[in-house]
């Protein structure tokens, strides 16, 4: 029975890919690192709280401790200017940054890929109109979109579903977190545009190839051709681009935090921590090094996994 | 493959460790100066002035960065003194002030010229002031000058009420007439009008006027059938007695008014150029100025290049050949340019707080002096629970401001409404009045000293009385009934504001068991939220004084729609301020002001936080430049000293260290007023 | 293209009007009369459709009027004055990115899975993983204060451009390297390359005449928006290096609610983006024989 399952499973695209991915040690190690990071940012803050009592926002009661301390056994990553434990802040910041990156990327994958594929495949006038819509949205300054979203939906008039999200996923009902979810929404709203363009480019070059003709000849519908035949073949660049979207969204979030439109203090994100750290670089280097290294390693791993996935998902993979 | 992976990590780690090493190198500075310290090749000052100036019209914009540029380009009757910011003679070489400080006559110098060579006369002043108060001029600072008689009426498009041959008077409708001091200078028609009893002014807008009339039947009766005469430019209290004398008449006594005359709003604009070029008059090819420097080139967002103006009346004593103002806002960039020796000095509040420890060791360069600028948290006194004075006082008592200022490193804790340390005479008055009040209330001195200070027990007691009991929880406190979900600490986005807000949030959490959520907003969204009293709880409030007098701060809470953003208005407090300003003896005036201040403090509309410090750097070869309380530098005193032996040493004494050149220049100027 | 730009301008106008705050508010309360004067002068009390019509009729004529913040300067003047700064930095940064990115990406694709693949790619990932607001101060620290080789900030001469160009170009170089590698791998496996090889063409010809042209397709589609964004300036680089480019001016215009300036820059940018995208679409056909337009 087990044997049978294995063989049937082996023929599907995904389990095949999984096998190949596991063989790619670099990607696999990166995947393990990412899994570790995810567990760390989810469980880490609680563990730190149980063992030492530090949270991302707890300032020491002793006035003499309210300053930046270099790394020590008690504070493995040192403290920030307010004497708060950097490790707890880095982990909490990781929660925000990873969520920002992943949610926006999922949006960009779902919306961007289908949009780009449909436009590219249908072609002609429809393609033209669809891509011009992308152009229009692209040209509207996203800062303005974020400002308006925050002012219209922020504060008392926050829609119920955003409150629900912040209560149930963020873990607390609070203005700062609501703003964070608005931010996910705003970033998701703009992050799919480039993806749509990339996918459309791929589909344009694929749609006249023989396998599409063959599929069409055997009576597969438009929907089927796009989602069963074209998109899987275009997955390589899509996956690569998706792994590029995560860092770029994280950086956008950092920039918005810098303008005061991002994460609300005392919450942090890797971007906002690095922004503070870089200002203190000459005096308290650990404030940049730890969030910076954690963020860089995570993005590194994301990129390697992206590459591995690309190779694994490519139906034509073979040694060149 | 693993090797490759490790290699990638190694690259990353090496780079980051390199950064760490680099930074540790730079902290162990062993040289006397911060970075490269060589006087510039040319005799030109390179200065960071903050954001790009909006416009080079002194009567329009209200920002400090522009104000500093105007001090090089435009001059008024008086100028800020380099050290104490008290008025010194400028275009007026001497003046007379009436015994009640309600009338001034200024005598102009004969040799003053515009940068295009045209002589400056009293008519230029009349033109400039009328333009500033004209409702068509979009001036953001005109309200500072509303002490000038009928200027407010003119600016707001008001009307006089004429019945038959005479006008209705204010005093007949409940206002007290200001009793004028004996006349200064010759009698003229205009002066007679100014000295006559104040006319009644009604709103020029028909709807608003109808509303006011409906509320006052006696007034409506009197106005019925009368002719409404719009207030004209000629009606304001400014007059050219002759080519060389200007008379200014105020509506009431204003002892600080002379200091206000150095403000950018009262600097001259050239009539012949403004009228010719209209809104384009400030373009580099059109602009005509009257300060020690004139515009040579303007590259917006890059540099504003000024050169010495040979037509300036005091050109012989101007120390620099030119000034380059660079508009840069990014603090670390400014610090980098300073360190690289590309600039010589910078505006205030530049050194980031985490750098202070290191920068303080550069004793010849770092300027850390008290400012007329402070920080409050306004409380919205119109929304629960902060409409309860006990809650307000509890939050004030629950905040350790000593801890806050030691955390900020560059500020002093503030326990009053106006700054401490910048007005020495007023500080003395405050101590006197405090002692009087203590005796009146019969409180022991040690008890009195604790008033307004950090006092956790008192805070808990007050909160309990207000219906929000604080209970012990573990090591800390808890106040479960306090509605934290509806309030917040609102601040506009800025690194320093964020640090302060986080610190205060943590303090209240530790001391009161109340976690007030933080809310940061970009500036333009923050302004209506704060000023429109939409916030609930606390709002960041930063204020710098417009003139060297505590009134510049106390008047924040003056009048029903005041600047304070607290919703607080108290006619009793207003009355105390009016009384103080009609007081002519400066010591008695300060005493009365201090009483008003203590009264206001007891009403607790704001949480006083800190008094700011100047916090900037200048190269030691730059002389004649002082950290005065508003960082308003009269540029003509500044010069570059090329002999290292004469460079500034230990600038903490800079205010008292004699500088022969500056001192003589200053003495010569001031002596012209006593001649 | 023009109707598109007008649509963008209209949507942006709507967003500015919804955003809280106005251009004339400062810390200081304005006297009611002054505020009324301002509102009358700019017609802010007119019905919205009338204000919209006035704005549109000006925009259609290409006249955005005066900046509200920088009074006495026209929007067109500001854009044309600061565009050259942004364009110089942007084009240089993109050239830098293209040279480094295409080189590294192609090389890595040819040596797939070898150390010569992972080396450049790790470096590219490193470039992608460092935010430019972190990279810039680090570069300044090394080159301006450690080596005393380059100025730390401000516009002035070629040496002042090196650090901004590297800072700005790094992330694009990394993007391009990765996109090139992916695209090249895709193409190198496709049938027409195999055919070309089967015909006995040598590797260099295959690479340059056939594979490269198809392989850089993803790069091309990325180039349109990237170049437009680069020409518009990049806020962080302009801030850190104190350069008078359009990006920082634009962000400030949004934060100041300087409506004419925002609309002017948005209109200019949207035309730029669309023009670039059009060029990109056309160049697709030339570069990839597989694409045919119906």
Structure description:
The complex is a heterotrimer of chains A (320), B (675) and C (294). By secondary structure, chain A is mostly helical. Chain A has helices at residues 2-11, 13-23, 25-52, 86-122, 124-139, 142-153, 160-168, 175-206, 210-217, 222-259, 270-279, 286-313. Chain A has one domain (13-53, 77-313): Orthogonal Bundle (MetI-like fold). Chain B is 34% helix and 17% strand. A six-stranded mixed β-sheet of chain B has the order 18-24-17-23-21-22. In chain B, strands 12-13-14-1-15 form a five-stranded mixed β-sheet, covered by helices on one side. Chain B is α+β, with helices and mostly antiparallel strands. The longest helix of chain C is centred in the N-terminal third of the chain and has 36 residues, at 75-110. Chain C is an all-alpha fold. Helix content of chain C is 74%, strand content 0%. Chain C is globular, with a radius of gyration of 24 Å. Chain C is built from 13 helices and no strands.
Strand and helix layout:
The complex is a heterotrimer of chains A (320), B (675) and C (294).
Chain A: H1 2-11, H2 13-23, H3 25-52, H4 86-122, H5 124-139, H6 142-153, H7 160-168, H8 175-206, H9 210-217, H10 222-259, H11 270-279, H12 286-313
Helix pairs in contact in A: 2-12, 3-4, 3-12, 4-5, 4-8, 4-10, 4-11, 4-12, 5-8, 6-8, 7-8, 8-10, 9-10, 10-11, 10-12, 11-12
Chain B: H1 2-27, E1 44-48, H2 64-73, E2 78-80, E3 87-89, E4 92-97, E5 103-108, H3 122-133, H4 151-155, E6 159-163, E7 166-167, H5 189-195, E8 201-202, H6 206-215, H7 217-223, E9 227-230, E10 238-242, E11 245-249, H8 257-260, H9 271-277, E12 293-299, E13 303-308, E14 322-326, H10 331-339, E15 345-346, H11 356-359, E16 366-367, E17 370-379, H12 389-397, H13 401-408, E18 412-413, H14 424-441, H15 445-450, H16 456-465, E19 471-473, E20 476-478, E21 488-492, H17 495-512, E22 518-521, H18 523-531, E23 537-544, H19 551-554, H20 571-581, H21 586-603, E24 606-613, E25 616-617, E26 622-623, E27 639-640, H22 660-674
Parallel strand pairs in B: 1-14, 1-15, 21-22, 21-23
Antiparallel strand pairs in B: 2-3, 4-5, 5-11, 6-7, 6-8, 6-9, 10-11, 12-13, 13-14, 16-25, 17-23, 17-24, 18-24, 19-20, 26-27
Chain C: H1 2-18, H2 32-41, H3 48-60, H4 75-110, H5 115-129, H6 132-146, H7 159-188, H8 191-198, H9 203-215, H10 217-231, H11 235-240, H12 246-256, H13 259-287
Helix pairs in contact in C: 1-13, 4-5, 4-7, 4-10, 4-13, 5-7, 6-7, 7-9, 7-10, 8-9, 10-13, 12-13
């Amino acid at each position: 029975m087990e044997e049978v399952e294995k063989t049937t499973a082996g023929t599907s695209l995904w389990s095949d890919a999984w096998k190949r991915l596991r063989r790619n040690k670099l990607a696999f190690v990166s995947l393990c690192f990412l899994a570790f990071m995810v567990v760390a940012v989810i469980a880490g803050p609680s563990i730190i709280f149980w063992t030492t009592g530090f949270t991302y926002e707890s300032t020491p009661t002793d006035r003499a401790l309210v300053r930046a301390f270099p790394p020590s056994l008690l504070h493995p990553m040192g403290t920030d200017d307010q004497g708060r434990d950097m490790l707890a802040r880095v982990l909490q910041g990781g929660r925000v940054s990873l969520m920002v990156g992943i949610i926006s990327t999922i949006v960009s994958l779902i919306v961007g890929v289908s949009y780009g594929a449909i436009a590219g495949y249908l072609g002609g006038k429809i393609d033209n109109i669809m891509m011009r819509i992308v152009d229009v949205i692209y040209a509207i300054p996203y800062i303005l979109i974020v400002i308006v979203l925050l002012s219209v939906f922020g504060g008392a008039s926050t829609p119920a579903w955003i409150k629900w999200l912040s209560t149930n996923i963020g873990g607390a009902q609070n203005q700062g977190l609501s703003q964070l979810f608005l931010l996910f929404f705003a970033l998701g709203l703009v992050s799919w545009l480039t993806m749509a363009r990339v996918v459309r480019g791929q589909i344009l070059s694929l749609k006249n190839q023989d396998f599409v003709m063959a599929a069409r000849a055997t009576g597969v519908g438009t929907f089927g051709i796009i989602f069963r035949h074209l998109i899987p073949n275009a997955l390589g660049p899509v996956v690569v681009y998706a792994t590029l979207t995560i860092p770029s969204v994280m950086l956008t979030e950092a920039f918005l935090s810098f303008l005061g439109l991002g994460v609300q203090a005392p919450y942090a994100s890797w971007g906002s921590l690095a922004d503070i750290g870089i200002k203190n670089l000459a005096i308290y280097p650990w404030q940049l090094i730890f969030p910076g290294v954690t963020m860089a390693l995570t993005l590194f791993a994301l990129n390697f996994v992206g590459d591995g996935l690309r190779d694994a998902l490519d139906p034509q993979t073979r040694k060149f | 493959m693993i090797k490759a992976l490790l290699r990638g990590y190694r690259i990353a780690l090496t780079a980051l460790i390199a950064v760490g090493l680099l930074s540790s190198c730079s902290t162990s500075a062993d040289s006397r100066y911060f970075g490269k310290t060589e006087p510039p090749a040319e005799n030109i000052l390179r200065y960071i002035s903050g954001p790009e100036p909006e416009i080079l019209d002194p009567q329009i914009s209200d920002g400090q960065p522009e104000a500093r540029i105007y001090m090089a380009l435009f001059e008024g009757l008086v100028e800020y003194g380099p050290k104490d910011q008290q008025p010194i003679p400028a275009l007026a070489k001497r003046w007379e002030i009436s015994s009640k400080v309600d009338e001034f006559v200024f005598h102009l110098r004969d040799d003053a010229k515009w940068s295009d060579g045209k002589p400056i006369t009293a008519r230029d002043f009349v033109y400039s002031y009328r333009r500033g108060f004209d409702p068509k001029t979009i001036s953001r600072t005109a309200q500072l000058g509303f002490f000038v008689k009928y200027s407010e009426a003119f600016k707001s498009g008001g009307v006089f009420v004429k019945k038959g041959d005479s006008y209705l008077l204010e005093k007949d409708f409940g206002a007290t007439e200001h009793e004028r001091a004996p006349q200064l200078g010759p009698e003229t028609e205009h002066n007679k009008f100014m000295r006559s009893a104040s006319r009644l002014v009604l709103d020029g807008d028909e709807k608003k006027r109808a509303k006011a009339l409906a509320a006052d039947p006696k007034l409506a009766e009197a106005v019925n059938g009368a002719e409404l005469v719009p207030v004209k430019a000629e009606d304001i209290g400014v007059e050219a007695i002759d080519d060389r004398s200007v008379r200014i008449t105020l509506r009431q006594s204003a002892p600080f008014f002379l200091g206000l005359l150095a403000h950018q709003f009262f600097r001259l604009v050239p009539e012949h150029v403004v009228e010719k070029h209209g809104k384009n008059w400030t373009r580099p090819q059109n602009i005509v100025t009257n300060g020690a420097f004139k515009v040579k080139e303007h590259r917006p967002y890059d540099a504003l290049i000024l050169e010495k103006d040979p037509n300036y009346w005091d050109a012989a004593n101007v120390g620099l050949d030119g000034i380059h103002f660079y508009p840069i806002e990014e603090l670390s960039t400014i610090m980098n340019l300073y360190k690289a020796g590309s600039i010589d000095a910078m505006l205030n509040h530049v050194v980031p707080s985490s750098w202070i420890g290191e920068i303080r060791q550069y004793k010849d360069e770092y300027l850390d002096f008290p400012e007329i600028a402070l920080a409050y948290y306004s409380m919205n006194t119109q929304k629960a629970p902060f409409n309860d004075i006990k809650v307000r006082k509890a939050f004030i008592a629950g905040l350790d401001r000593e801890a806050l200022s030691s955390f900020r490193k560059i500020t002093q804790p503030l326990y009053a409404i106006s700054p401490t340390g910048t007005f020495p005479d007023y500080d003395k008055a405050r101590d006197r009045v405090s002692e009087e009040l203590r005796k009146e209330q019969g409180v022991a001195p040690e008890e009195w000293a604790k008033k307004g200070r950090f006092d956790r027990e008192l805070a808990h007691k007050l909160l309990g009385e207000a219906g929000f009991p604080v209970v012990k929880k573990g090591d800390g406190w808890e106040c479960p009934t306090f509605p934290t979900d509806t309030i917040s600490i609102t601040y506009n986005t800025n690194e320093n504001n964020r640090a302060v807000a986080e610190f205060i949030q943590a303090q209240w959490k530790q001391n009161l068991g109340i976690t007030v959520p933080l809310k940061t907003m970009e500036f333009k969204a923050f302004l209506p939220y704060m000023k429109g009293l939409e916030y609930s709880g606390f709002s960041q409030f930063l204020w710098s004084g417009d003139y060297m007098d505590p009134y510049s701060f106390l008047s924040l809470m003056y009048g029903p729609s005041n600047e304070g953003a607290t919703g607080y208005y108290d006619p009793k407090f207003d009355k105390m301020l009016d009384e103080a300003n009609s007081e002519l003896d400066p010591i008695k005036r300060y005493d009365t002001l201090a009483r008003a201040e203590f009264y206001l403090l007891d009403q607790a509309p704001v949480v006083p936080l800190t008094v700011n410090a100047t916090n900037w750097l200048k190269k030691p070869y730059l002389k004649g430049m002082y950290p005065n309380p508003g960082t308003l530098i009269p540029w003509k005193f500044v010069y570059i000293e090329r002999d290292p032996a004469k460079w500034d040493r230990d600038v903490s004494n800079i205010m008292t260290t004699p500088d022969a050149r500056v001192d003589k220049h200053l003495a010569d100027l001031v002596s012209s007023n006593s001649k | 293209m023009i109707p598109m730009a007008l649509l963008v301008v209209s949507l942006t106008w709507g967003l500015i009007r919804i955003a809280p705050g106005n251009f004339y508010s400062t810390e200081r309360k304005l006297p009611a009369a002054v505020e009324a004067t301002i509102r009358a002068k700019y017609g802010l009390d007119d019905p919205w459709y009338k204000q919209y019509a006035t704005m549109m009729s000006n925009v259609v004529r290409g006249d955005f009027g005066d900046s509200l913040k920088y009074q006495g300067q026209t929007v067109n003047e500001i854009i044309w004055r600061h565009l050259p700064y942004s364009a110089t930095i942007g084009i240089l940064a993109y050239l830098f990115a293209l040279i480094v990115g295409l080189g590294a990406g192609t090389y890595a694709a040819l040596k797939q899975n070898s150390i010569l693949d992972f080396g450049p790619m790790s470096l590219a990932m490193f470039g992608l993983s460092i935010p430019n607001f972190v990279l810039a101060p680090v570069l300044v620290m090394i080159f301006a204060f450690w080596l005393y080789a380059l100025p730390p900030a401000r516009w002035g001469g070629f040496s002042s451009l090196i650090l901004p160009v590297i800072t700005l170009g790094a992330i694009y170089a990394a993007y391009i390297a990765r996109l090139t590698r992916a695209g090249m791998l895709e193409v190198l496996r496709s049938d027409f390359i195999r055919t070309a090889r089967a015909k006995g063409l040598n590797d260099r010809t295959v690479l340059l005449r056939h594979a490269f042209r198809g392989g850089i397709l993803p790069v091309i589609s990325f180039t349109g928006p990237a170049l437009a964004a680069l020409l518009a300036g990049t806020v962080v680089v302009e801030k850190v290096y104190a350069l008078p480019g359009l990006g920082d001016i634009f962000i400030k215009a949004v934060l100041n609610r300087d409506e004419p300036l925002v609309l002017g820059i948005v209109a200019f940018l949207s035309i730029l983006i669309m023009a670039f995208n059009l060029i990109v679409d056309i160049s697709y056909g030339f570069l990839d024989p597989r694409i045919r337009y119906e």
